[in-house]
């Protein structure tokens, strides 16, 4: 049976955080070969989220700015 794992990248640490990207993979934990199926990455509209009251924090944005260029690719979408 496949399981779905999600990875959210956000602009805040609060539950109300603006979501920058949603990464998803399907996997079967019982498969010995560890087969993973990567699903398309989603990039929700940040302006729409902020208009709806979702939040961002300067400290989180500063943290993202200090990460590697590869890690920051989600912010260039």
Q: Could you give the topology of this structure?
A:
Blueprint: E1 3-10, E2 19-27, E3 36-38, H1 46-51, H2 58-65
Antiparallel strand pairs: 1-2, 2-3
Q: What's the end-to-end separation, in Å? A: 33 Å
Biggest sheet: strand arrangement: 1-2-3
- The gyration radius over C-alpha positions equals 15 Å
Helix content: 10-25%
- If helices are DSSP runs of H or I spanning 4 or more residues, what is the number of helices? 2
One letter per element, helices H and strands E, the order comes to: EEEHH
Weakly predicted, low-confidence segments? none
What is the overall pLDDT average? 89
SS class = alpha+beta
- Quaternary arrangement of the chains shown? single chain
| Biggest sheet descriptor | 3 strands, antiparallel
Give me the count of strands.
3
- Estimate what percentage of residues fall within beta strands: 25-35%
Shape: elongated
Write out key terms for the chains shown.
single chain; 77 residues; alpha+beta; three-stranded antiparallel sheet
Summarize this entry quickly.
This protein has 77 residues and is an alpha+beta fold.
Report what the structure shows.
There is one protein chain. The chain has 77 residues and is α+β, with helices and mostly antiparallel strands. 18% of the residues lie in helices and 26% in strands. The chain is built from two helices and three strands; from the N terminus they run E-E-E-H-H. Strands 1-2-3 form a three-stranded antiparallel β-sheet, with no helix packed on it. The longest helix has 8 residues. The protein starts with a strand and ends in a 12-residue tail after the last helix. The mean pLDDT is 89.
């Amino acid at each position: 049976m496949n399981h779905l794992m999600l990875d959210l990248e956000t602009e805040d640490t609060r539950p109300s955080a603006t979501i920058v990207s949603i990464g998803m993979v399907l996997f079967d934990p019982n498969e010995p070969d560890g087969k993973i199926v990567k699903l398309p990455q989603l990039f929700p509209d940040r302006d729409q989220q902020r208009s709806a009251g979702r939040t961002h924090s300067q400290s989180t944005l500063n943290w993202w700015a200090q990460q590697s260029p590869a890690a920051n690719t989600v912010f260039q979408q």
